[in-house]
Every structure is written in C-alpha cells, then in structure tokens.
Amino acid sequence: MLIGITLLSLWAQFESHGQILSRFFELEQLTELIIFGLAGILIREVFLSRARHMRLETQMADMVRSLAIRDAKIVIVGPEKKSE
Asked: What is the pLDDT of residues 12-70, one digit of tens each?
C-alpha cells in the first residue's frame, strides 16, 4: 500500500508522466487518477483485512475447541444408592 501511495504521489510531481497515464485511462485531470488509485488501494486493503479477520476468527475457534476437548473430563454416572 505504501508503495502504491508513493508511486501515485511521484506521478503527481512529474506532471507529464501523469498526464500521459491519465489520458490512457481517459481521465480529465491527474487528481482523478490519484483519487481513483487511492480508492482502489483502500478497497483492496478492506478486503484483505476482512479475509485476515475471518482467518483469525477460525483459528481462534479451532484453538478454543481443541482446549475444550483436551480439558474435558469424562464423568461416569452410576446407579444411585437408595437409602432406607
């Protein structure tokens, strides 16, 4: 993400390269290219963060399940004695 932001800001500094690229994407201004690029990076990061969150959630559920199985005790209930 940092590399993408750095490249977009460098293109803003070198306007001629940015104008060529913005014409390629049929955008009127260079700022639109920068905004669309940053929006694309942000959307990518949202999806990656969501996938990471789901993976961690699954790992945590598996860990809790394995700890519960490991610490489970078997309780054998026998017939109760009747007091007379």
From this structure: 676 666 677 677 777 676 677 778 888 888 899 999 999 999 999 999 999 999 988 88
Rounded Cα distance, 30 and 25, in Å: 10
Q: Which amino acid is at 62?
A: D
Helices (H), the chain: 2-13, 15-24, 30-70
d(CA 34, CA 11): 9
pTM summary value: 0.52
Q: Is 75 helix (H, G, I), strand (E, B) or coil?
A: coil
| Chain position carrying tokens 């390629």 | 24
Name the token pair of 55: 């993976």
